[in-house]
Every structure is written in C-alpha cells, then in structure tokens.
Amino acid sequence: MRIFYTKDNVPRLYLLLGNVYQVDGPGLVNPFVAVTGVTNSSFTFTTMKGHVEAGSITFSAEQVEPNTVVFTIESTAQ
Q1: Using the 8-state DSSP alphabet, how is residue 7 labeled?
Q2: Cα separation of 24 and 2, whole Å?
C-alpha cells in the first residue's frame, strides 16, 4: 500500500478531501497537489500554484464483473 505524506510530512494510508500532498516527481521537481474529490470508487488531485502542469486528474475503479475491474484515469489541463 502506498503511503501518502501531507505537506506537513504527516503519513496517511488514505486520502482526505482538502489535504495537500507532495508528489514524487522526476529529478528535483516534487510538486504539490490537493485532494479535491473523494468517493467510494475515485479520487481527484488538482495541482497547486507553481505546478508545471496546471489541471486535475481523477483516478477511479469499478468492478464490472466478478473478476474484472475497470481502472480509469481522466485528466484536464489548463
């Protein structure tokens, strides 16, 4: 399981609406994102000011058959 760290370096095993997280980026870039949406099957990150790519990304998963899960990524850029 991935552990997320808030901007205050607090470890979390789950995402909370409104929390800000630092994302491991390539090289020396480690941008911040805010959790702007959470449901039972999805979560959305929105980039913070200064992020190289301004926008949002939503990750979702849905079980469509007993042994089949559809994982979807939707993103928008400004």
Answers
A1: T
A2: 12
